[in-house]
Amino acid sequence: MPNRHHHRHRRLSGGAVAAIAAGIVLAYVGILFGVQAVGSRIEQANGTETMGSLDGRFTDDTLTMQYNGRTWTYREKALTNILLMGIDWEDTTDDVTERYAGQADFLLLITLDRVNKTVSTLQLDRDTMTDVRIYGPFGNYTGIQTLQICLSHAYGSTAAENCENTVWSVSRLLGNIPIDGYIALDMSAITILNDTLGGVTVTLEDDFSHLDPSMTKGTTLTLHGKQAEYYARGRMDVGDGSNVSRMRRQRAFINGAEELLVQGMNKDLNYVGSLFDALSDHLTTNMERGWLINKAYASQEYQRLETQTPAGSRNIGEDGFMEFHADADALGDLMTSCFFQ
User: Fold this and answer.
1) Beta bridge partners of 106
2) How far apart are CA 338 and CA 123, in angstroms?
3) pLDDT at residue 99 above 60?
């Protein structure tokens, strides 16, 4: 992927990109091959619940967590964490002096547990408020600000630097747990993945007919071409216009794509590599192709747990943009169940 340089003026993207392609093809492939299991999804909390910070609950040197009167230790030898990112490169020319380019609009953390033989997934809202490292126009580090986590990807002069900044913010949000690898795809990969798989079948809970006359609410159809992008990316002009609804559609797309991947893997041992190659011009990763493929097939008997989303509350910030504030106690419960013992 070519290096990209960014204008660094704060903005929130109206449209968003789901890195569904990354999540399924590269780390999801085979890793999420196992039987779907009922997990303990953490429901969205309302604004009346206790909000707070996880500051002071972790000791960085030993990766322990103080929570509920106990000391929890990170399960380092059992876990592998892979961060999947969907990057919106669309807004790189319009009003660039007032906008970022290249936001991380889809964030999914996949955790492989080789002791319990499970795969857990944590989907983060792009509007989650957390620490973001800030760099000046010449690459000089200027400090840390609390911003929407999607903006973490905007800082850096190369695609790799962008990804590393997002990895840092996600790790920071989750108590500095290690993230062992990352995969980022741009928006055009959604259509490529969907069509390479043969088309994901979904039931539309919202109306997309202003984008495609055949995409009416309640219709079950197999997505082709731009339909996949409309379904996974649509937000402001779809349904209630919320990112919550879009995240739900993204999970539905993932589930449908998994079925097609399983079929392909059962028929062709080279299927994973072929899908990887089809997306290679649209991805940035710090992991080797062979490692990903081997990990996928080695983990295909793992049990997949239901995707979790942190609880919290939403509000409009002083600058007029949406903010999601994770509930600190609910986040602590999530982390002790997923990452610590």
Assistant:
1) 86
2) 13
3) no
